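Hey, I'm writing a tutorial for new members on how sequence and structure tokens pair up, and I'd like a real worked example in the thread rather than a made-up one. If someone can provide the structure for the chain below, I'll link this post from the tutorial.
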Amino acid sequence: MNGAHLHLLLNHTPILGSLFGLVLLLVALVRRQPVLVKAGLIVLLVAAALAIPTNMTGEGAEEVVEHYPGVTRTLIHEHEEAAELALWALELTGLLAVGSLLLLARGHARAALLTRLTLVGALLSFGLMARAGNLGGRIMHPETRGDAVSNALGR
């Protein structure tokens, strides 16, 4: 197993985890179900934790694919920049989730506000993660690019 395998193994977890946490937290808040609120916050925390090893495997993946035909430094750089921004957004969302869990456990009056801020963070994080994933997919999937490389491949 090489760096690209590891990155591919992990890269969907922060994207899907942030989506699942977002949806779960939204449903929980709408239905006013405290147990589901906590579950949604925990899912977001796990997604934030899994984003770290996902990010750490990116360099290894780059080393494997950087010399492949059709792979350009520009494609890799765009993905790296988007992934770094998404990582920081999801880590901040994870911190908000921890804060929300602590305030909920203490019955603090500001718990609901922080939980709603966490929901906003989850929405932003998922959007940024999805964008980073899309840009990453373009590195090895020229059919998603709509450029000369995909045209040359007859796609």
